[in-house]
Amino acid sequence: MRNGSRNGRRAAIGFGLGWALALIGLFGLELGLGRAVPDPERLLEVADKARFLEAESYELRVEATRPPLSPGEEGAEEALLRVLSKRFPEGFRTRLEILAPEALAGTVWLVVGEDVFFWKPGLEQPLRFGGQQKLFGDVSVIEAARLELFGNYRVLRQEEAPEGLRLELEARRSELVYPFITLWLTPDGEPWSLLLKSLSGEPLKRLVYLQYGDVQGDRLATEFTVEDLLFKGSQTHIRITETLLRPLGDELFDPQSLGEGI
Asked: Are 226 and 138 in contact (CB under 8 A)?
């Protein structure tokens, strides 16, 4: 029994040291009172860099799949998207074009800050929606664009948990789609889950990052799931299949020019 107890203590100490060393190495943390103190803003910045490319402009090809919710439903729903993103003085703008299925092909969404614009063939002028507007399956527009944490959220508290480092976040502005978010990080600083919550704290969506890869010299999340917690078992799988760094014209990100192709 004493050996078992001793081994348990060693395992716990090893886990704590592993976390401390990983955080010190990754974030350049200062030591205070003999322990590592992660910088909250740095944690959010690293979490964003693991989920988004930092290039001035780029294009992604994305596959989205939503399996049937019940045995009575037909086959999985599938969609193909082209995601265009470009840095502007006020921040990134993201354009989402649905290429398939045929019923949605030609649909365009544009995210400019907290503003979301929608256009489809036949519309004379774009319409304005909220970021929670459904894009495909369980995925809303903001989740497919850039749900950035750094600069938009403050860390209320952070703690080590069996799942990793857990951070409770609060939106800095009332215009943001999700007032509260719980973020889990691995010891390497990579996000593995986001729990998106309402103003009352009710969980609405869960994002789970399944795979990371080296993309254009960056470490990037290339596969994740979006689960709608208001509908049991409703989950959509997202996979980035192609990445291209290239110049993109400003007109592609103009709300009044959404009907114009590349």
From this structure: yes
Q: Is the pLDDT of residue 4 over 90?
A: no
Helix, coil or strand: residue 256: helix
Q: What local confidence, expressed as pLDDT, does residue 10 receive?
A: 45
User: 3: which residues sit within 8 A by CB, 6+ positions away?
Assistant: none
Q: What is the average pLDDT value for the chain, to the nearest integer? A: 85
Q: Which domains does the chain have, with CATH numbers?
A: 38-257 (2.50.20.10)
- Give how far Cα 209 sits from Cα of 7, 65, 90, Å: 32, 15, 28
- Between 4 and 211, name the one with better pLDDT: 211
Is a pLDDT exceeding 60 seen at residue 73? yes
